[in-house]
Description:
Number of strands: 11
Strand content: over 45%
Distance between the termini: 40 Å
Radius of gyration: 13 Å
Amino acid sequence: QVQLVESGGGLVQAGGSLQLSCVSSGRAFSMYDMGWFRQAPGKEREFVGVIGGSGGRTLYTDSVKGRFAISRDNALNTVSLKMNSLKPEDTAVYYCAAAQPKPWNFMRAPSRYDYWGQGTQVTVSS
């Protein structure tokens, strides 16, 4: 069983930065691909990005490329999402999720992830 706990959300002005963290209590953390998703009110959960188990591979949605970066520390069972140049449209609840290794064609789909955190709110004011 894997339990994920996010932290680091908050209120920030447009153009600012935030770093989210997600800590896993499960075993074999490095075996999991770790994704970040977000969900704004009234919208579907949206893929933000994913990082492979070794940390050597990442994939991002187009709207965050060049602004967001995912990293992980397998020794600390932690994955981070560094968000720069934040925009009001980045406002959402952000979730981390863990997936057992799967073809990366499908890593944008929430259904491919096996475990989810409870989410952390990010609000970007204009």
